[in-house]
Structure formats: structure tokens, C-alpha cells
Amino acid sequence: MRYWLLKSxxxxxxxxxxxxxxHQTEPWNGIRNYQARNFMRDEMQVGDLxxxxxxxxxxxxxxxxxxxxxxxxPDDLQFDPQSDYYDPKSSPENPRWLMxxxxxxxxxxxxxxxxxxxxxxRLADLLILRRGNRLSITPVAARDFKYLCKLGGLKNR
DNA sequence: GCCAACGTTGGC
DNA sequence: GCCAACGTTGGC
Length: 157
What we know:
Shape: globular
Largest sheet: 6 strands, mixed
Oligomer: single chain
CATH architecture: Roll
Order of helices and strands: EHHEHEEEHEH
Radius of gyration: 15 Å
Number of domains: 1
Strand order of the largest sheet: 2-5-4-3-1-6
Strand content: 25-35%
Structural class: alpha+beta
């Protein structure tokens, strides 16, 4: 079992939107970066847990945790010419982009801000805090995940 | 809106 | 396969 951090812009799709979805489940689509795609394809498994990070937000930070509920499969937006995520070089026979399904696992009672994380020396290894990191899906060490859950107000994670 | 830091593209 | 130009990300 692995742990991840997944970024989303709450103006587009935030934790509050996930709460309202049927079965609190949603395809994590629109990933158009090879490294992030490869994480989904090669390393993500059903049951893995992820931190739901709000980027381009006020404030940016982590709202809660999600569970990977379906393994990687083709992102349908890549075939839709009307979509911002359309990729004319991809085809259903040979899809280039993948998505996973995520399901709400728990909401943090205390939102963890980016500022709070930057100020915490225990989180020095968190990839999201490294200079220039823009990857929308990053692996998280188990101890960091558990520590963040504690900061977020969840017990026994 | 700025801009640093990346990733991608495409000519050669 | 190099690398300049361009596009994107995302905090501030």
C-alpha cells in the first residue's frame, strides 16, 4: 500500500465537490504529464490513500484524504474534441492518458495550509515543498502521510 | 498579474 | 539528440 498527494484546483474540482458526488467517487481526469501518468499506471493500486491538495487556492493546502478506488484506465476527455483535455494524437486503440477513480476517505477537521507545512521541519522531505516541484501527483512517505493525518485531526491513520 | 521553474515542441 | 522558444504551473 502506497501513499500519494494529488493536486486539484478547488475552483475546478475541490474536496467539497467530491463530497457531493455519488458514492463520493470521481474519476481523477485531466492528467497530462507523463511522470504523473506513469505513477498512476505503474504504481498506484486500489486501496492506496492520497492527500487531496488544493492548488491555486486561498490558502493552498490539504483538505482531506481519498482512497484509490479504481486502477488506471483511459481518460475519456482525451477523445473529446470539445474538452480542454482533448489530445488529437491519442486514440481509443492506443490511449495516451490515464485516470484513476478516487473515493472520499476522510475530511480533515483541520485544513493544513501550505504555510503550515513549510514551517514544519518534520515535513522537510515532502516533495510538494521542494523548490520548483509542479508535479500534480507525487508519492508520499508513510510516516509523512500519518503525521499529516494527525495534523489534520484524524486519529489512527 | 508577475514570474521562477519546469516540461514540451520542433527545427536542425 | 541538442536546445531555443514557447507554454504551463502555481505561489505570491
